[in-house]
Amino acid sequence: MSTIKITSMLSKLLTARGKTTSIGSPSHRVFVTATSRPLQDKKDKLTAEACQSVTEAAESVKEGARSVKKAAESVTNMSKEVTKIISETAETITDKAASIIKEKVVGK
C-alpha cells in the first residue's frame, strides 16, 4: 500500500471517531497497551505477605512485652508484701527478745 492510501484511511478513521485532524505528514506514533505483569503481581503479593508477617510478629512482641510487664508488677507487689511481713516479724522478734531480756534483768 502506498503512503497516501494509508494516510487517507487513517484520516477517515480519525474523522469517523469524532476527531478531526489534518495530517500533513504521516504520523509514526503507535500506541501499545500491555497486559499486567505477572512477575510484578507476584512481587506485590510477596511484599504484602511479608508486611503482614512483620505486623503479626510486632503484635506478638507487644503481647510478650505486656506479659513481662504484668509479671514484673506481680513480682514487685509480692516483694513489697514479703518485705512487710519480714519487717513485722523482725519487730515481733525484737519485742520478744526485749521482753525476755527485761525479765532476766529485772528478775521476775
Any descriptors?
mainly alpha; rod-shaped; 108 residues
Description of the structure:
By secondary structure, this protein is an all-alpha fold. The chain has a domain at 49-108. The chain has two helices and no strands. The protein has helices at residues 3-16, 38-106. The longest helix has 69 residues, at 38-106. The radius of gyration is 45 Å and the shape is rod-shaped. The chain starts with a helix and ends with a helix. 0% of the residues are buried. The model has no long low-confidence stretch (mean pLDDT 79).
Derived from helix and strand composition plus strand pairing, the structural class reads: mainly alpha
Q: What percent of residues are in strands?
A: under 5%
* Main beta sheet: none
Q: Sketch the topology as an H/E string, one letter per element.
A: HH
Helix content: over 70%
List the helices and strands and how they pair.
Layout (H helix, E strand, L loop, with lengths): L2 H14 L21 H69 L2
TL;DR of this structure?
The protein has helices spanning 3-16, 38-106. It is mainly α and 108 residues long. The relative contact order is 0.04.
